[in-house]
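Example 3.2
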Amino acid sequence: MRHPSPPDPVTRLMTGPDIMSVRFWGVRGSIACPGPETTIFGGNTACVEIHCGDDRIILDAGTGLRELGDTFDAGAHIDADILLSHTHFDHIGGLPFFAPAYVGGSKLRIWAGHLRPEDGGLENLLSSMMAAPLFPIPMGVMASDKTFNDFHAGESFDLHCGAHVRTCPLNHPNGATGYRVEYGGGAVCYVTDTEHVDGTNDENILGLIEGADVFIYDATYTDAEYPSHVGWGHSTWQVGAKLAEMAGVKTYVPFHHDPSHDDEIMAAIEAEAKARFAGTVVARERLILEV
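Structure, written as tokens:
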């Protein structure tokens, strides 16, 4: 079996005023699947890092967040916004293992746009995840300064780093939020955990991603696989390519890979997707995109 070669390593992100860089730390959906069959594309669940100049935005807190945290020296602090698409476990399970969150001086502003009043809010939900008997270390042990921001998907807001964020609701069980991060004239869109409806185009998504530099999309299934997963809350790389073409995006990034898709399957998907939309770059761990 011939696996694809890993991309040439990128040793550093470009930083500085008006520069955006995107780095992928976790690209899987549903459950982490590290192992010999996923060494090329990666097995960690969703986590994407955006550098806006010298500042940092983190999209989702899946198991890839732990590896991001491990890039910091012991005791180093972080100042970042964490934008959660939603709070299913594959998108928050890395937070208890994010080393900088336990460091005094770290500042974390955590956002979510899908929770209803009866859910008790983001802070209550994340604290419950880290409470006994589910986890032995309560969130209160984290020495970082944390703020929790609940909003309604569809709202827009500005971040501490100067980035402007637009959002839209997504079609997913229990709700989810899509994000458009604009900074320095560039735009990165993160649209994962959403299901298309056959025969229609999601106007919320099209409006969000119009003219984007980078469009990251839930491509869990292929069109052939999708009929047996209707109602599960996920889409296909083919639908993502169509949306990318309609919206005039520059780079389309299939993301949230199914855990059953090993490197061989992902290589075949990559070849087909690039043939369908020339600006396709399939997400893999440690991939860096400059905007």
